[in-house]
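Standup notes
- HV: blocked on the assembly model, inputs below
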Amino acid sequence: MSTIRLIDIYKAFKDGDNTVHALFPTTFTIEKNEFVAIIGPSGSGKSTLLTMIGALQEPSGGKLYIDDVDIALLNDKQKAKLRFEKIGFVLQSANLLPFLKINEQLELKAKYAKKRYDQKESNKLLTQLGIEKLADKYPNKLSGGERQRAAIAYALYGDPVLILADEPTASLDGQKSLEVVALLKEIAKKQNKAVIMVTHDNRLLHYCDRILKIEDGVLQEVAHSEI
Amino acid sequence: MFLAIKEIKYLKGRYLLIISVVALIFYLVFFLTSLAYGLAKANRSAIDHFKVSGIIIDSAANNNITVSSIAQNSVEALFDHDHEPLNIALSNVYHISKSKNEKLLSVAFVGTIDDSRLVPVLLEGRQINANNEVIASISLKQDGISLNDKIRDSKTDRTYEIVGFTKEAKYNTLPVIYIRLDLISPPMQAYKNAEALSGATEDMPQRINALAVFKDDVIKLPSGLIYLPSEEVINKLPGYQAQVLTFGMMIGFLSMISAIIIGIFMYILTIQKSSSFGILKAQGFNNAYIIKAVILQTIIITFVGLLIGYLICMISIKLLPSKVPTSINYWFYLVISLLTSLFALAGSLFSVRAVTKIDPLEAIRGA
């Protein structure tokens, strides 16, 4: 069972009389344990693809399965539930609420899921990510790298099957970027997750198992040696 | 709950400012309510104490008891309802004291029969036993009048001794002095230093201002007489309705304004947080959860503001001089609080709409 399965997925917009193809028909799968990078120049369709995989926008055609669930069959409420349960998002400038401490961000997820907040599980997760001492701090008190680690912790809490990281290192310096990407790889391997990362930074690609390149809406898999 | 409380804790300063504004508006609403109710009571408490269903007066009196004059025996003969004769006269009295300067006070004399049900509960002293004895509203104590003090009516020059105090009773804002019926009957007010006209004859019957009726099914009054239900008697008091309506409008508008202010604050806060809310929605949090947090914050702001406003109002009333007619009516407070809270919740619907319009995709793109 693949975590992500795209079959002839495409996205086209109407722009006046013209049709703009953000993504031409694309087929690929991503399995658990895989750490996949999506690369391409700005405006190539990377984010469109990522948001479709994240069930945030609908493809114009084709089939998309997340953890074997056909997204086309879900209504908005069911899609939101699927996002909450199966997908963890890590965004450019972190997906944390400014008014919650790091441990409270995790508690919020537990509360929303109507589950008991497990302090031990939370501490374990923060320890794994090396930010256990920051549990009681607000996001604005953390450095960029720490904030991204906290965002990863937040994405991981609740045990999703898929992690979608959109330019997770954009606001970090070189060394911090490498640390964060190494962490994402570790998560894919040790925690048996599918991790998809959109990035502009070619230095990070050697951590990834596969590289998908989009150019002008056309997606193709490329080898590390081709970069 | 979690989201709402945590945000308020984090943004203490901002929420404190909002709550302060809301508290000040509630303070104004409560304070005006106390003033309005105090002033209304100062107009009507004597009539409220009558506990009558209505009053029969001369139709030519233009609903004003004090200028009504009717023949007592002819009216009483008309029906066998439970009733009592009543006279009301506005006057000035001198407080006779040992000091050279006699203090002049405006009062309302209410003339009743002995052991009348129109006189409220006695708090001090005793009932009237003689023509030169009166009972006063306890509020006259604030003017320095004590038990056994003497007062002189400026119209008739008659002198009376205060033999008792009733609970506060005011007529048209004037403190009430209860007196024997005949002593302030319309003809008696024309005489200085006269004895009471107790010996009315068939040719010259005793005249009274009004007949207080305790049970409300008076019908078939002859022309020249009208029956006014109690509430109408109060509403017809000079200036009463204008004053009640003015205060009512002020209180109503203030309640609406406070609700609008809360609504605007909540809307601005929601718009400021739209990126955070968008990210939450992208992560799978549904609208209902976010909307609950917004509504809960509205309730918290309204409730805390209301509580602080109420406390400041109570302190203010305690500190005000007793001459300022304030009165606390918890029922009014409750109704106003509930209405304002409902208006505020209605105002927060703009925020609710804003939350539903937030596009998670936009939030993700902007993050």
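- HV (later): unblocked. Helices of chain A lie at 46-53, 76-86, 102-112, 119-128, 144-156, 174-190. Strands of chain A lie at 4-15, 18-30, 35-39, 61-66, 69-70, 87-90, 162-166, 194-198, 210-215, 218-222.
- Next: hand off to the docking folks.
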